[in-house]
Amino acid sequence: MNTDKITRPWVALIGFIAAAFAAGAIGSWATYANVRTWFPLLNKPSWNPPGWLFAPVWTTLYVLMGVAIWRAWRTRAPAAPALARLYFVQLAFNALWSVLFFGLKQPAWALVDIVVLGGLLVWLQRGLWRVDRGAAALWLPYVLWVGFATVLNAAIVRLN
């Protein structure tokens, strides 16, 4: 029995999920101090979520993202390799948003980044839908959250 054929998919799953958490860690590491010092001083809309909500939401989203792209990758569809590459590209934009918004204290630059990120996510959503509808369903909460974050980012730019 070839155990490589059994373990390889699980290693890939762990890799896709770990990559998402790595992007989050980069963003968190680069911005930790300003989240606690600078961000509370900004004017925010009344519908700004409480700070405690972000960790459980992002933890859930990172797992869903990793599982979604893994499912697409496992289909071996012709589009799967391109979707996997695009997954890593969007992770870079995801991490960059935190660096721009919190690390460099540039919400307007971060808004440009998150608009590009949102476009990538919609593109991925469409590709996942064609390859594996279950993967697309797992990806959708991320698209919706980033859509909400885009509106929130724009409101913060406007208020400050």
SSE run: HHHHH
Shape: elongated
CATH topology: Ferritin
What is the CATH homologous superfamily assignment?
TspO/MBR protein
The CATH class designation is Mainly Alpha
Gap between N and C termini:
62 Å
Q: What is the CATH-assigned architecture?
A: Up-down Bundle
Mean pLDDT: 93
Q: Helical percent range?
A: over 70%
Q: How many strands appear in the DSSP assignment?
A: 0
| Cα Rg | 17 Å
Summarize the biggest pleated sheet. none
Number of domain units: 1
Structural category: mainly alpha
Low-confidence stretches: none
- In DSSP terms (H or I, runs of 4 or more residues), the helix count works out at 5
Strand content range: under 5%
Structure in words:
- Helices cover about 85% and strands about 0% of the residues.
- The protein has about 160 residues and is mainly α.
- It has one domain (about 5-160): TspO/MBR protein (Ferritin), CATH 1.20.1260.
- α1 (about 5-35) packs antiparallel against α2 and α4 runs antiparallel to α5.
- The radius of gyration is 17 Å and the shape is elongated.
